[in-house]
Structures are given as structure tokens and as C-alpha cells.
Design a protein that fits this description.
This protein is mainly beta. The protein folds into three domains: 225 residues, Jelly Rolls (Sandwich), CATH 2.60.120; 97 residues, Immunoglobulin-like, CATH 2.60.40.10; 82 residues, Immunoglobulin-like (Sandwich). The protein is 2% helix and 49% strand. It is built from one helix and 34 strands. The strands form eight sheets. Strands 2, 4, 9, 10, 11, 15, 16 and 19 form an eight-stranded antiparallel beta sheet that branches. Strands 8-7-6-5-12 form a five-stranded antiparallel beta sheet, with no helix packed on it. Strands 22, 23, 24, 26 and 27 form a five-stranded antiparallel beta sheet that branches.
């Protein structure tokens, strides 16, 4: 699978990965009687947390993408679909007992554009039984709702699992007229709630398999025949019904980008860092800057920075020396040899003194000096200091000990720095912030309060 990289809006740090090679296959469904089935009663949530993911491109906004949806009330049903009653509405459903929780994806802005636009998109749904059911679209947070009322429900169901259809009242076959019309690709089911960092890192890459908590994984790369094979190791082979054909999946750019960050130097310049894990047929990169969070108003501030086209990790650095005090937004543009391009960002940098001014004093200590505001919602500034040049990384954990975000910042010079963490999509709670500088660890805590 390869994917068209989608612009993710974040603040200061953006962690994303996108693997880019040539187009790979997808399945094409006509909305009449096409679906993937023969799974039977599999993939029950039970008492587990849950996540599921699929790429889709609509021809018409009709019915089920993936799940154990049933046409009628039954405990344990789950899935994502286009609502028949509201044709342009992408909806998620989860039911425990007689309690049914629905959540609609928020249309794209600007223009209030629905997700039924004939363009490839990826939807991820995560279900944290003690917290939120969350929708991510194209790797970015979209909407969430509490499902804590279902935390103790056993969400087993007798319905069948389908891709490309919505089940009938018994769940043993698709409901008449409830077939998906469009293309589908790269479907996954997990028995854990993926974090925002997980989603950003894996939504547009083919992931290693098998791996723990991966219950079903259909890459749909067969390009022929009537079966799609499960790569999770659980042997949930799907059968293509109704005359499904094979088509092209989305295209992507030839860059695997793992981070894009901005820091303020001791001379009050803005230094942009980005790290690629691999590059294929990449031309290079340019940096754009604006005083407002609007790419349309941004100007190019760097020359073309040539790509290396290696399969190993490469760190790039560009310093913007033409800034004045204020808050600036930066985007990274990646370009390939075929003329395609993509934007990543924005990242944010706040300059508090005139460029080229006297350098601030070197800190006398290393560690986290402050986190503010605390409590926060949704952005937290993490102020840290280095008394000497050291490699720096951060990991952030929730109260259950699950890592929700990580940043590998590379080697930093002795100075004071601000890291801004955007916790959009995460539930209220206490979070542990762990900084590693060299071989030493430093901890702090912050409360997300919504």
C-alpha cells in the first residue's frame, strides 16, 4: 500500500510517517451487491479496548465501510458507515446492551466539505472503554464522545464481520441496499485503543506484521482473484462477493517523514528540523512561513533543499534568520521528481527578542524547568534546559502507563527550549512527561482538563 500524504495540523511538533512508492491495488465496489465477507462471527470487542482503520474513496455515499454493524439494535455492534438517512454523513456506531453511542465525523474546513468527495481518505476509530470513542481522519483528530458508560459491558455480538457492507437484522448477511459504493484499501482491526501518536505514525504506511494486538490486517494488494488475505496471523481471509473488481489505490510522495520541529536559537532565529526514515525519487524540500495559521498566506523562505534519496535516517536543518518578534507558523513542502508535492505542518515558533540580539545565558542545570499552563487544554508548553549539548527525547504517558506521544529531537545545544505538546483528542487526566537528555531521565506531570 502507498498513500497520498495528508496535511496534519499540529503545533510545534508534528510526528508523521508516510511511505511512498508506486500505486498499489484497491478493491472497487459498485454499491449494488458487492462486499467482502465469509468471515462469520469474528472480531468481538468483548471487554477489550478497540480500534479499526480503513482507506476509502466514495463514488456515492452509501452504507458500511467496516465493522459488525447490524440493521437493528443488538449489543456488541460496531463500525463506521455513511448514513442512509443523512447521505453525506460519515458515522461511527457502538452499542452495549440497549445503549447505543453514535458519533459523526466533522466536515472538512474551509467550505464544510463532506468526506464523500471522491478523494481517498483514511478513517481510524479508537474506543477507549474508560474514556472516549474518537474519530481520526487522514491521521488527524476529528471528533470524540465519551463511552465510559460502556466500560463494563461485554460487547460480544452474534453478528458477522463485513467490509463494504452493513449487516441485516440478524447480522448474518448484508442488508439489502446497504452496500458501499466506491473503493476500499488497507483495513485493520486492533484490540487496543490506538493513541493519537499511533494513528499519526501508522495511518499511511504498511505496518509490520504480525504484531501484538493486531486482530485483522488486509492490505488488499492481491490485485486479482476473489480473496483478500489477513496478514495479522489470525487467518481471517475475506471472500469478494458480487463481482468486486480491482483498481488503483492512492498515490503518495517518496518520503517517509518521522518528525518536523521548530526551535528558537540563542540568537533568536527559528531553526527547523525534520527527519526522514527513507526517500525514493524525492527532489527536495522548501520551507514556508506565515504570521497566521493559513497556508494560503504563507511565503517561501528557503531555497530548494536537495533530498538525499537514501533508505537510512537523514536529519535536515534549516535556520530562518529573517524573523522578527512574534508567533510564526511554518510548513515543510516535500517535492518528488515527477512534480508532485505535499505540505506538512504547521509547526509554531514564538520569537521573543530581536534577531541577532545578545545570546541568553547558558543554563546551569539540565532538565524540565516548567510546564504551563497547568492544568491545560489542549496545548501545553514544556520548558526545558540543557547545560551542555545532548541528545534529547520526550515520551508522554497517560495514567494507565500507555505512551500517547513521543518526540526524538536529536542533539540540542546548551540553551533553554520550549516544546509545545498538542493533546487534542486525548481525554481529561494526569499525564507523565519524561525527558531523556543523554543517559539521564527527568520527569514532570501535567493535568489535561476539558
Amino acid at each position: 500500500m502507498t498513500r497520498r500524504s495528508i496535511c496534519l495540523l499540529g503545533v510545534l511538533i508534528l510526528g508523521i510517517m508516510s511511505i511512498l512508492h508506486a500505486q498499489t491495488p484497491s478493491i472497487v465496489l459498485d454499491g449494488s451487491n458487492d462486499y467482502v465477507g465469509n468471515y462469520g462471527d469474528i472480531l468481538d470487542m468483548g471487554l477489550s479496548d478497540w480500534s479499526y482503520q480503513i482507506w476509502f474513496k466514495t463514488t456515492a455515499p452509501t452504507s458500511g465501510l467496516i465493522g459488525k454493524n447490524l440493521y437493528g439494535s443488538q449489543s456488541g455492534r460496531w463500525g463506521v458507515f455513511f448514513s442512509k438517512g443523512s447521505p453525506n454523513t460519515l458515522r461511527v456506531l457502538l452499542q452495549g446492551g440497549t445503549t447505543s453511542v453514535q458519533l459523526d465525523a466533522i466536515p472538512q474546513q474551509p467550505g464544510n466539505i463532506t468526506w464523500n468527495d471522491g478523494v481517498w481518505h483514511q478513517v481510524t476509530v479508537t474506543c477507549d472503554r474508560d474514556g472516549l470513542m474518537t474519530i481520526y481522519l487522514d491521521g488527524a483528530y476529528n471528533n470524540s464522545i465519551s463511552i465510559s458508560a460502556l466500560s463494563t459491558n461485554n460487547l460480544n455480538s452474534t453478528g458477522y464481520f463485513f467490509i463494504g457492507a452493513y449487516g441485516n437484522a440478524t447480522g448474518t448477511a448484508p442488508q439489502s441496499g446497504f452496500y458501499f459504493n466506491g473503493s476500499l484499501d488497507e483495513a485493520r482491526v486492533w484490540n487496543k485503543a490506538l493513541s493519537a501518536a499511533d494513528v499519526a505514525a501508522n495511518y499511511n504506511v504498511e505496518i509490520p506484521y504480525p504484531q501484538s494486538n493486531l486482530m485483522g490486517y488486509w492490505q488488499m494488494n492481491e490485485d486479482q482473484g476473489i480473496f483478500i488475505y489477513d496478514q495479522s496471523g489470525n487467518n481471517h481471509t475475506g471472500t469478494l462477493y458480487g463481482g468486486i473488481t480491482w483498481g488503483d489505490g492512492p498515490t503518495t510522495l517518496p518520503v517517509e517523514l518521522s518528525s518536523f520541529t521548530a526551535t528558537i536559537t540563542s540568537q533568536y532565529f527559528v531553526q527547523l528540523h525534520w527527519i526522514t526514515q527513507s526517500e525514493t525519487d524525492a527532489l527536495g524540500y522548501t520551507i514556508y512561513r506565515s504570521l497566521v495559521n493559513d497556508l494560503q498566506s504563507a511565503i517561501q523562505v528557503s531555497p530548494l533543499i536537495n533530498a538525499t534519496n537514501t533508505t537510512t535516517q537523514v536529519t535536515y536543518v534549516y535556520t530562518d534568520e529573517e524573523v522578527t518578534p512574534g508567533t510564526w507558523y511554518y510548513w515543510l513542502q516535500s517535492l518528488d521528481l515527477n512534480g508532485n508535492f505535499n505540505f506538512h505542518g504547521p509547526v509554531l515558533a514564538t520569537v521573543t527578542s530581536e534577531q541577532g540580539g545578545d545570546a541568553p545565558e547558558i543554563p546551569t542545570n539540565t532538565g524540565i524547568s516548567n510546564v504551563y499552563p497547568n492544568p491545560f487544554n489542549p496545548s501545553l508548553t514544556i520548558r526545558y534546559e540543557l547545560k551542555e549539548a545532548l541528545p534529547v527525547s520526550f515520551k508522554i504517558y497517560n495514567a494507565r502507563g500507555q505512551m500517547v506521544q513521543s518526540y526524538d529531537l536529536g542533539t540540542k545545544e546548551a540553551a533553554s527550549y520550549d516544546l509545545i505538546w498538542d493533546a487534542t483528542g486525548l481525554p481529561t487526566g494526569i499525564y507523565l512527561i519524561r525527558m531523556q537528555a543523554g543517559n539521564k531521565l527527568y520527569n514532570s506531570k501535567a493535568v489535561l482538563s476539558k
